[in-house]
Design a protein that fits this description.
Blueprint lengths: L5 E10 L2 E11 L4 E5 L6 H8 L7 E6 L2 E2 L4 H10 E4 L12 H11 L4 H14 L15 H13 L5 E5 L7 H16 L3 E5 L3 H7 L2 E6 L2 E5 L1 H4 L3 H6 L6 H8 L10 H12 L1 H7 L1
Parallel strand pairs: 3-8, 3-9, 6-7, 7-8
Antiparallel strand pairs: 1-2, 1-4, 4-5, 9-10
This protein binds adenosine-5'-triphosphate and magnesium ion.
Length: 280
C-alpha cells in the first residue's frame, strides 16, 4: 500500500451555493492517526463524507492509491468496503434490532460465511469492550453505548481506512480510554485513522499529526507545531492543548511534549526535580 493510500486534492464542496471546502487538500499517512480539527461548521464532517465517497465534490479529486475515486455504483461499493465512515450521531448508522445483528450486517453483506461473521463481530465487540452488549436491543442502549456499537460495526468490516466523526463526544472517561486502546491497536495493525474532534488535548496526545480546517482549506502538520501557532489557533476557534500552555508558562521547549508524562519529563530535564515541585 502506498504511503498515502487515501488523499484529496483541491476539493471544492458547496451547499446551496455556499462554499464549505474551497481548496482543501489532505493526504492521510497510511497506518497513522490524523486528527481533524476546526470550528463548528468549518467543514470537518463535510470533508470526512467527501473522503468516504458519500459526497461528490464540485471540483477536486479524492484519490485512492493515487487513482481518482470512481463515483459509479461499483466504484463506491468497493470504496466503502475499504474506507469506513463512523458518523457523528450513531443513530444515523444503527438500524438493526440488536447489537449482534447490527455489527454483523456489513460482514454478512460481504458474503462471508456464518463462522467468519461471528468471529469478526466477536473481535469488534471485544476491541471496544462491549461483548456484554451483544444481545441487547439497540433502542435500550445509552448514547455512549450506541456510539461504541456504531464503531464496532465499522471495525467488523476490517477497513484500510477508518474515518471517525467526533468519536469521543458523549463517552465517559473510561469509554475514551477504551476507544484510545482500540485505535492504538488499529494503528499497530496498519489501519489508517482520521478523527474529527474538538479535543485538542486528545489530538496532541494521540494523533501522529493534525489537519486544521480554516476557511475551507486544510493546514496539515505536527500537533505541537500547529497548535502552538496563536494565529491559527484563533482562526480555527481552537485553544492550545493545556500541556503546551503549561510548558510555555514554565519556560520549557514545547517540542516533544504531548501529555502529562512528557511535561513532567521536560520539566525535570529543564529545571530539575526539586524546582519542579516548587513551581507546581
Ligand atoms: N447537507 C447539508 N445541506 C446544507 N448545508 C450543509 C449540509 N451539510 C453541511 N452543511 C453546511 O456546511 C457547513 C459545514 O458543516 P459540517 O457539518 O461539515 O461542519 P463541522 O465542521 O463538521 O461542524 P461541527 O463541529 O459542528 O460538527 C455548515 O455551514 C453546514 O450548515
Ligand atoms: Mg461535524
Amino acid at each position: 500500500m502506498s504511503p498515502h493510500f487515501l488523499s484529496a486534492t483541491a476539493l471544492h464542496v458547496a451547499f446551496g451555493g455556499h462554499p464549505v471546502l474551497t481548496d482543501a487538500s489532505v493526504s492521510l499517512p497510511t497506518g497513522q492517526c490524523l486528527a481533524l480539527l476546526g470550528a463548528n461548521g468549518s467543514g470537518k464532517t463535510t470533508l470526512l463524507r467527501t473522503l468516504a465517497g458519500s459526497l461528490r465534490p464540485l471540483s477536486g479529486q479524492v484519490l485512492v492509491d493515487g487513482v481518482p475515486l470512481d463515483f459509479g455504483r461499483a466504484g463506491l461499493r468497493a470504496h466503502r468496503q475499504r474506507v469506513q465512515l463512523v458518523a457523528q450521531n450513531p443513530d444515523d448508522q444503527l438500524f438493526a434490532a440488536d447489537v449482534f445483528r447490527d455489527v454483523s450486517f456489513g460482514p454478512l453483506n460481504l458474503g462471508l460465511d456464518e463462522a467468519a461473521v461471528r468471529e469478526r463481530v466477536a473481535q469488534a465487540l471485544a476491541a471496544l469492550a462491549i461483548e456484554d452488549l451483544a444481545e441487547r436491543p439497540i433502542h435500550e442502549l445509552s448514547f455512549g453505548q450506541r456510539k461504541r456499537v456504531a464503531l464496532a460495526g465499522a471495525l467488523a468490516m476490517r477497513p484500510s481506512v477508518i474515518l471517525l466523526d467526533e468519536p469521543t463526544a458523549g463517552l465517559d472517561p473510561h469509554g475514551v480510554q477504551e476507544l484510545v486502546a482500540a485505535l492504538d491497536s488499529l494503528r499497530r495493525g496498519n489501519t489508517t485513522v482520521m478523527i474529527a474532534t474538538h479535543d485538542v488535548d486528545f489530538a496532541l496526545a494521540f494523533a501522529d499529526s493534525v489537519a486544521v480546517l480554516v476557511q475551507g482549506q486544510v493546514r496539515h502538520g505536527s500537533a505541537a507545531e500547529l497548535l502552538s501557532d496563536p494565529g491559527l489557533v484563533e482562526a480555527a476557534r481552537l485553544r492550545q492543548p493545556w500541556v503546551l500552555e503549561a510548558a510555555a508558562g514554565l519556560g520549557l521547549d514545547p517540542s516533544g511534549i504531548r501529555d502529562v508524562a512528557g511535561l513532567v519529563a521536560a520539566a525535570q530535564a529543564g529545571v530539575g526535580v526539586g524546582s519542579v515541585g516548587g513551581v507546581a
